[in-house]
Amino acid sequence: MIKVNHINKTFKVAKRKAGVLSSIKSLFFQKFTKVQALQDISFSIKEGEIVGYIGPNGAGKSTTIKIMSGILTPDSGTCKILDKTPWLERIEHVKNIGVVFGQRSQLWWDVPVVDSFELIKDIYRITDAHYEETLNLLTDSLNLHDILKTPVRQLSLGQRIRCEIAASLLHNPKILFLDEPTIGLDAVSKIAVRNFIKAINEKRKTTVILTTHDMSDIEALATRIILIGKGQLLYDGNLEHLKEKYITHKKIIVDHYEYQSKIDLPYTEVLKTTPDRTILSVNIKEIKVSSIIQQLSGLMEIHDITVEDPPVEEIIVDLYREYEI
Amino acid sequence: MKPYLSFFKMSLLRNLQYRIAALAGIATQFFFGFIFIMIFKGFYSYSSITPDISFKALVQTVWLQQSFLFFIMLWLRDNEIFHMITTGQIAYEMVRPTHMYFYWSAKLLGQRLAGGVLRFLPILFIACFLPEPYNLVLPDSFTTLILFLTTLVLGLILIITLTMIIYISVFYTLSPTGSFLLFRVLGEFLGGATIPIPLMPDTLKTITYLLPFRYSGDLPFRIYAGHIHHEEAVISIFVQIFWILLLGVSGNYWMKHALKKIVVQGG
User: Fold this and answer.
1) One domain, residues A160 and A288
2) Less crowded by CB within 10 Å, the N or C end of chain B?
3) Are B15 and B158 in contact, with CB atoms under 8 Å apart?
4) Does residue A67 share a domain with residue A139?
5) Which residues of A260-288 are buried (b: 16+ CB within 10 A; e: fewer)?
6) Does the beta carbon of A89 lie under 8 angstroms from any beta carbon of chain B?
7) A11/B267 touch (CB, cutoff 8 Å), yes or no
8) Domain shared by A202 and A283, yes or no
9) Predicted local distance difference test score (pLDDT) of residue A14
10) Do the chains contact at B95 and A179, CB–CB below 8 Å?
11) Could you tell me if A152 and A281 lie in one domain?
């Protein structure tokens, strides 16, 4: 469905030192540096996948999204989305896609939300029946009933983002690009947005590509992740697989009756200890968690125990460190 | 066609919201109308030569110019479009299945029409009831009226193709100030909005006839005033169409080129 092959993109960036003198100097001699935003990026995505596209700030995530949505032209490489090259067949291509740029707005700010929707309906030539059906689905699942008639300028950020997502889906696109869709959302809206993305992916087989810095988004939605850093593709695969590979330690939180002695178990580090609670980190490559629990219960009287995976954030930090990005 | 009609409708509706601005505008237009007429009155009373255009006809053009200001002024700018270009908001415009050139044209047309509609009727109406010879009168024939309306509409389209060139130039300069200032000063002068074209020296007159600017305001207004004859008016319609095509095609081409090179950074 989406095939990206050997995409390269460089940006020319004007650079100068701070200060008046250097700004005057740059009037006559402007220095440019070339920034390699994307370097030989290739991947392909099948219909119905949800792909989390992650990487640190400035890695080239948005650049890739912009190339795939026909806004930017790459320096070299090919990209076929539903057999169309986005930047050459822009108008035909964009009929198939929906895009949300979390930090920009596509709604007309001084008219009610529903007016913007009607205009989008006309832009995409959506039939009345289709429009009604999609709009009802969207208002129900994104909880837009109360805000449809409010002018956009009077909406809160969370309300606006929900409307933005709805606006991008009115024409029932086959592919949805979400560039930081949950930026600045509260917990309720975040979960509403996530559930909704999941729902349309299941119901309509919409392919979703999302970039985010919020790893809980990725965990909740994506089965596959693509990691890029400094414009290069670093990892492409299953999130579970990534966890298996990178989770070396698990955290055990033990609540117990008063226990004062030192705990000394193999491949285990005591992170924190109080008379009635101990937090341990276990190297699971060397020893099984169950064996540690068994040994612990021999030592003390336990009344509660929790085993935690390290948060995905930490895995990502480890990954970034490993790839030096 | 439908998407562009909707863009136009949206732009029209949004701009019609600004009624207070229109009221203030009407007052300003009257002020300027009277100032111009007073200057010309002084000029006509004390000049030893007989100008090419009668005072009465000149008064007609002044009132028409003030009423249809929104149709003819180059300086009317849509800051949203500049904002789109300079902030990268244009990214959203580019993921729509529409031709950006026509989309923006429809938006500009809506803006001008809304501004014009809110202003022209009250000004025309009041100007009709001013004392002789400062009042607006009906054109001398029905044909004149038809020719006036045709050239006015074509002039509006011409102004839009002209201003589109300015907007596209912002893709390269990233600042509308320069492009606008240059266009405004030159365009207004050469369009006869500062000094009426009939009062210009012959060489200057020839230059203005060779450029597109006068075909938006000066032409329809002088047709109405009866200062341009019907034969000349018909020929001028073809000139208008020529300029619209030339500016439209080159603007479209330039825009395509600009969009290919566009860089939307950050986010």
Assistant:
1) no
2) N
3) no
4) yes
5) eeebeeeebeeeeeeeeebbbbbebeeee
6) no
7) no
8) no
9) 72
10) no
11) no
Number of structural domains found in chain A = 2
pLDDT at A207 over 90: yes
pLDDT in tens, A234-266: 888 888 887 777 788 888 898 988 888 888 888
Give the end of a domain, one of A243, A258, A283: A243
User: Does the residue A91 lie in any domain?
Assistant: yes
Which residues of A fall within a CB distance of 8 Å from B14? 108, 110-111
| Residue A121 located in a structural domain | yes
Using CB atoms, pick whichever of A104, A106, A119 lies closest to residue B6: A119
Mean pLDDT in order along chain B per 10 residues (267 residues): 83 81 87 91 84 89 91 82 81 87 90 86 89 89 94 94 88 78 86 88 92 91 92 95 96 89 64
Mark yes or no for CB contact B95/A124 under 8 Å: no
CA distance to A21, B15, B63, B134, B169, per residue, from B119 (Å): 50, 12, 12, 19, 30
Q: Identify which of A102, A119, A180 has the shortest CB distance to residue B10.
A: A119
* Closest B-chain CA to A180: B267
Q: CB contact, 8 Å: B92 with chain A? A: yes
* Interface membership of B97 toward A (CB under 8 Å): yes
Task: Indicate whether A102 and A204 sit together in one domain.
Answer: yes
Question: Has residue A149 been placed in a domain?
Answer: yes
pLDDT at B3 (0 to 100): 82
Query: Which residues span the domain enclosing A260?
Result: 248-308
pTM given for the model? 0.80
According to the model, what pLDDT value does residue B266 have? Answer: 54
Per DSSP, the residues of B122-149 read HHHHHHHTSPTTSS----SSHHHHHHHH
Burial A184-205 (b: 16+ CB within 10 A, else e): ebeeebbebbbebbeebbeebe
Model-level ipTM above the cut of 0.85: no
Question: Average pLDDT, stretch A283-293?
Answer: 87
